[in-house]
Design a protein that fits this description.
The chain is α+β, with helices and mostly antiparallel strands. It has ten helices and 14 strands. It has helices at about 5-10, 55-65, 70-80, 80-90, 115-120, 125-130, 195-205, 220-230, 240-255, 280-290, and strands at about 15-20, 20-25, 35-40, 45, 55, 135, 140-150, 155-160, 165-170, 190-195, 210-215, 235, 260-265, 290. It binds zinc ion. The site of zinc ion (ZN) has 10 residues, from loops.
């Protein structure tokens, strides 16, 4: 396993040490006096003159002129996965990739089908995953969820999911301007909007072919417009936790008239956070008995006599 200093050596950077910082001429601009430095504990680097900055993978990507995903592998092979992950956790710029970095379909060839046993744990089938374009990063043991232009299908990048952590490539990707699952959406029944793409795959495995994912808890106006472009009927199935329910209340309050029917997925007595570990029956029940958005508006009407109190109503 190599240290960060030996990685800098291998990249041909001539530096002097100042504390933990390796200080050198900036690789990114015509530097007369060293204005670039790399922290040899975290791998975070920064140029005070031109603003070139990022993590070791972005540095390797720039200097070796290789795509960012390959650079991640280049660094991981040398430093070991455990240390690379530690460096990532040490820094707030873990999502950083060069802004100029353009992804292409060829980047997808680095990835494989998700292992069947990983899908099986979540009750998802290979076929459903394929239909929705899900890939797998074997190096990172992470799901790859492509982020595509909603109209043309052009690849903008992807969201990577490892355990409960999500990362986006490239950084700043416009994931709030598209939805996961649009290309596979089948018309004719209400759209079911979930947070995570893997939940949409779970829905599809359960026979629900109208699942769309917002890539997170925040649903943008653009995303709701994209839903409205494909159907007038929406079931909000955001996570069964307080951020999810807060977003549900916001949407039900602000967008009540935007859809012909706007309903909220009924988790019933289910204690889990999302649909991933629900049975097919529980998912169908949640959609079939979805509740009117009236109950989720920020100033809720008095519930009709005899109706059950809405769970999680503040
Ligand atoms: Zn510079």
């Amino acid at each position: 396993m190599q240290s960060i200093r030996s990685l800098l050596d291998e990249l041909g950077i001539q530096y002097r040490m100042s504390g933990d910082e390796a200080v050198a001429l900036c690789p990114s601009h015509d530097d007369m006096h060293p204005s670039w430095s790399c922290n040899t504990k975290s791998g975070v680097h920064h140029c005070f003159s031109c603003g070139f900055s990022g993590n070791l993978a972005s540095l390797a990507s720039y200097i070796l002129k290789i795509p960012y995903p390959e650079a991640v592998i280049w660094v991981t092979v040398r430093a070991g996965e455990v240390r690379v992950n530690k460096w990532r956790e040490d820094t707030k710029v873990s999502n950083y990739a060069p802004p100029a970095y353009q992804v292409s379909e060829a980047d997808m060839s680095l990835f494989t089908d998700p292992p069947s046993r990983m899908l099986k744990v979540r009750n998802c089938t290979q076929q459903a995953a394929r239909e929705m374009g899900v890939r797998w990063n074997n190096q990172e043991r992470a799901y790859i969820f492509p982020v595509r232009d909603p109209k043309t299908g052009e690849l903008w990048g992807w969201q990577e999911k490892r355990m409960r952590r999500f990362r986006n490539y490239p950084h700043g990707i416009r994931k709030s301007e598209t939805l996961f699952g649009l290309a596979a959406f089948e018309h004719g029944s209400p759209a079911v909007l979930v947070e995570s793409p893997i939940s949409a795959v779970r829905l599809r495995t359960a026979g629900i072919t109208t699942g769309l994912a917002a890539y997170g808890v925040q649903v943008s106006d653009i995303q709701l417009s994209l839903v409205r472009d494909v159907t007038e009927h929406l079931v909000l199935a955001l996570d069964n936790d307080s951020p999810g329910m807060a977003e549900v209340r916001r949407i039900c309050t602000k967008f009540a008239g935007f859809f012909t029917t706007l309903k909220v997925f009924n988790y019933g007595d289910y204690e889990g956070k999302d649909q991933d570990y629900m049975t097919d029956d529980q998912i169908r029940f949640g959609i079939d008995t979805a509740r009117s958005s009236h109950f989720y508006r920020n100033t809720p009407p008095v519930p009709a006599r005899g109706s059950r109190q809405v769970r999680r109503q503040v």
